[in-house]
Amino acid sequence: MSRSWWGKLLLLVFVVALSGVYVYPTLSNLDLEKTKFPFKQKMNLGLDLQGGLYLVLGVDFHKVYRDVVERQSNSLKDRLKEKSIPVLGVKTVREGVPADDPRIFLDFDSAKREDLYQILKKEFWNLRLAGESSGHFELGLSHDYRNEVREKTLNQSIEVIRNRIDEFGVSEPAITSQGLDRVVVELPGVREIDRAKELIGRTAKLEFKMVDDKSMSPGQLASLISKMEKDHQLSYKENGKENQKFSDYVRKLNEFAKGKIPEEDEIAFERPRAGSSQGELGRIPYLLQSKVSVTGDDLQDASVQIDPENRKPNVGFSLNPHGAAIFDRVTGENIGHRLAIVLDNIVHSAPVIQSRIGGGRGQITVGRGDSEDLMKEAKDLAIVLRAGALPAQLDFLEQRVVGPSLGQDSIHKGAMASLIGSLVVFVFVAIYYRVSGLIAVFSLILNVLFVLATLVGLEATLTLPGIAGIALTVGIAVDSNVVIYERIREELRLGKNLIGAVELGFQKAFRTILDANVTNAAAGIVLLMYGTGPIKGFAVTLLIGIVTTLFTAVFVCRLIFDIYLKYLENRGSRTLSI
Amino acid sequence: MLELIRPGTQFDFVGKRHIWMGISLVAVIGTFVLLFTRGLNYGIDFTGGAEVQLHIPKAWDIGQLREELENGGFKGLKVQQIGLPEANQFLIKAQGDEHSLNQVSHRVADILGKKLSAGEFEIQRVDVVGPAAGSSLRMSGFLSMFYALLCILVYVTIRFDYRYSPGAVLALFHDSVLTLGIFILTQKQFDLQILAALLALIGYSNNDTIIVYDRVRETVHQHPELSIDQAVNRAINETLGRTILTSLCTFFTVFALWIFGGKVIEDFAFTLVVGIVVGAYSSIFVASSLVIFMTQYHERRAVKLKLNGGKRKKKTVTVRPEPKFQ
Q1: If you write DSSP's letter for every residue of B91-137 in order, what string do you get?
Q2: 3-class state of residue A346 by DSSP
Q3: What's the CA gap between A295 and A302, in Å, rounded?
Q4: Order of strands, edge to edge, in the sheet holding A313-319?
Q5: In this predicted structure, what is the pLDDT of residue B324?
Q6: Domains parsed from chain A with CATH numbers
């Protein structure tokens, strides 16, 4: 045997040994904590195999853009006042324009157009002139700025979710963006699905707003709301069948209330707590001043604490110096009035300010239920407050939950089916090609070993379709062997000698095998780019399988054939068992 | 030597190609008719909706479960038994808007919680796809199939030439359409997994086609005396053993997956089973016949151009040596 042959054999032994080391912890199910085995890594199992939660969240950019335009509009107003350029009207518009591109309508004295235009051009680079008629500008957000806002919002959302999940404690969560406006969250092995969902989807926007008790008494407000509900046939029932979002209800109510309540005010509700009187609406309405005094951005810390009076848990928070200073001033100015603590547009409590509150400390009471539920709720609220608010509302677009028992069942059945299928193939090939068939079986087994080892090495995830992918790889790999063997048979029929036939068979088959696998890989790559979750797992194993198949069919199988030929030569045999 | 197909076998595939092409054409058109009349049974991946898989060890039957759930205010409620009756597994489907869909599994648990104690039932799997997500998944799904076909078209054109690529792609199109046809006929649920299986099939079934093409090309080179019909027929016969053998081996593996792989992967494996059978058929009967068609078309055009005095010579594409008849 030549030196290069020995080199190849050595390489093969090395690759096999390495693969063995990679798959050993997974196959023998080692306890990675305790084992002395030097390689400590197991196969990542997909959500469909170990159970868990898969979520696709959509970011509500319409709202984000609306808010940004609103802010721009306000600063534009202020700036124009400073520059004493008289404008006849500034308003933000959503109707009649694309939902993702709200506009500012600006009416002005036509004579001042140039001045106005210069200010816009120099100082408001993030606005663009979307339309103009005499004495009228239609402004939208510039494309660059929109992209910037979108990217920032998306990244920040991912960041916030990651912080929350980290505190919640899930091993190996994956939080990634998908496309331009989606976040994918994968939480393998998580059991408390509802809690995790609540934790992820909650905006957690904390605001402190003053209650406007001067304009309207609580009684007047309640009857105004009942009247509006009747007039506009609007209603909201807890757990009702309408499945209307509470936030939509409040938004509509506020639209109808325009002109009936002071311009700077808005209506908000406190959800009733167990034991308290429900009132005629089933929830307590508040008239709040829209202006926010302090927000959750100024929060320094939040933690669960136990109220010494009723022994119930609540969430204590402290504000950073900036927030504390404002808090101190606002409470000082409003002694005797009520300050509402608003979380995600729902009033949590509205205590009367007894005295100036320095130091920026306070507490938020939590909902209903027994003390265990309260404790959980308080804990989660503290987590979301600490992790910060999401920059936008997130909607659940897709969610998939797999229970642990189903996953276990899937592994078992999938592995079993693959094994049965492979065995049938092995037997078939061995009968059909005899000794050469056994060589093929051996290289197929190595092929599967290589696929598994590569999966572990790349830290790729094995899913149920992935297991199918491995089974399919066996099928495809057999193809390479068949192509080679049929070629060798043909050459033998043409009267070539053994070595020549084997040589030519491999040589001619190689091109065919390569061609066939390239198109397979093309399909695999498309799947990888487009697929999510389990399907991605299928694409990964398919692609790995193609590479290992090329290696085993062309390199491994050839090597063993050389040994076999040598053996035949030594025995003086002239017939190949194929 | 065990041989499935004896060397020198000469089935006349090509001579009867019009029959096979006719059958395929009718099947493809039939599928399209079915697609527009009966339609695919889209799963929630594409339509949006909620699906809850339940396991109830206690001997509840489907009627009782349905009765309990019907008062739950679900929209478009469907309750199905899955697997063997003893397994007591059920699939609950509901429709609705994004908000109400999110509540479905919750409400199912609430309703069952009233009648059963906590350990007695298990929610094994929940899939919720919002209506908007559903339509975008469907769009990107079909686009991905289009891209896969395009990649293969380009590759085959580069690797072989323009006379081969339409056949390869049409054969793949034929395979995917007929597999879809089976899905319409059986009304099995068509979801993301099935789409993935179809994509995998596009890659796999092209294998067979490429191997036959490879041989056609080789035969044309080595035996210029053969007409294209004869060359193709010879190539098909020479590779027939291989085509049947490998399809059979792959068939074994996916068949085992279909039978033993469990409920979750059953339809995925079923798609592969159907696709492999259709794929083997198409590479023998459809793809190669299209090569003949394309080659003859170009030959006729070349002859016509010659008669025209070669005015549009620039556009004539290099044609391999003219077949010589004995």
Answers
A1: EEEEE--HHHHHHHHHHHHHHHHHHS-GGG-EEEEEEEE-HHHHHHH
A2: strand
A3: 13
A4: A299-306, A313-319, A361-365
A5: 45
A6: 3-48+403-571 (1.20.1640.10), 61-141 (3.30.70), 205-365 (3.30.1360.200)
Helix axes B192-222, B228-260, angle to 10 degrees: 150
Nearest CA in chain A to B97: A243
Residue of A369 and B37 predicted with greater confidence: B37
CB of A429 less than 8 A from some CB of B: yes
Instruction: Tell me how close the Cα of A285 comes to any Cα of chain B, in angstroms.
Output: 24
> Which of A131, A128, A135, A130 has the alpha carbon at shortest distance from A114?
A135
Write the DSSP string, B253-321.
Answer: HHHHHHHHS-HHHHHHHHHHHHHHHHHHHHHHHTHHHHHHHHHHHHHHHHHHHHHTTSTTGGGPPP---
CA distance B26 to chain A (A): 27
Taken in order of first residue, the domains within chain B and their CATH numbers are 49-129 (3.30.70.2040), 134-306 (1.20.1640.10)
The confidence score (pLDDT) of residue A385 equals 85
Give this complex's ipTM.
0.85
CA separation (Å) from B74 to A80, A332, B118, B313?
54, 52, 22, 70
- Max Cα-Cα span within chain B: 90
Q: Which residues of A touch B111 (CB under 8 A)?
A: none
What is the band of A94 on the pLDDT scale with cuts at 50, 70, 90?
low
Confidence at B276, pLDDT banded by 50, 70, 90: very high
Please state the rounded mean pLDDT for residues A196-201: 87
Per-residue pLDDT tens over the stretch A2-21 = 788 889 999 999 999 999 99
Q: Which long-range contacts (CB under 8 A, 24 or more apart) does A262-267 make?
A: A262/A212, A262/A215, A264/A289, A264/A290, A264/A291, A265/A212, A265/A215, A265/A289, A265/A290, A266/A290, A267/A221, A267/A225
Of A423-432, A459-468, B289-298, give the range with the top mean pLDDT.
A423-432
Query: Quick one: A82 exposed, middle or buried, by C-beta within 10 A (0-12, 13-18, 19+)?
Result: exposed
- Condensed to tens digits (0 to 9), the pLDDT of residues A230-270 reads 888 777 765 444 445 677 788 888 888 888 888 888 899 88
- Which residue of B7, B238, B261 is in closest CB contact with A413? B261
Cβ–Cβ < 8 Å for A444, A548: no
- Pick B203's closest partner by Cβ from A425, A474, A522: A522
Q: What is the pLDDT of residues A497-550, one digit of tens each?
A: 888 999 999 998 998 888 888 878 888 888 888 776 677 888 899 999 999 999
Q: Give CA angle at A517 (A511, A520), nearest 5°.
A: 150
Pick the residue with more confidence: B34 or A66? B34
* Residue in B122, B203, B210 nearest the CB of A523: B203
B124 and A530 within 8 Å at the Cβ level: the answer is no
Structure letter (DSSP) for residue A350:
-
| C-alpha–C-alpha distance, residues A236 and B325, integer Å | 86
Task: Kindly list the distances between the CA atom of residue A295 and the CA atoms of A120, A320, A380, B85, in Å, as whole numbers in the listed order.
Answer: 30, 11, 19, 57
3-state secondary structure A25-83: HHHCCCCCCCCCCCCCCCCEECHHHHCEEEEEEEECHHHHHHHHHHHHHHHHHHHHHHC
| B-proximal residues of A, 178-217, CB under 8 Å | 193-194, 197
Compute the radius of gyration of chain B from its Cα atoms.
Answer: 26
What would the two tokens of residue A243 be?
A: 């499945």
Contact B148 A406 (CB under 8 A): no
Shortest CA distance to B294 belongs to which of B200, B192, B170, B151?
Answer: B170
Contact A390, A157 (CB under 8 A): yes
Distance from the Cα of residue A464 to its chain's centroid: 21
Single out the residue of A331, A330, A334, A350 nearest to residue A342, CA to CA.
A350
pTM of the model: 0.80
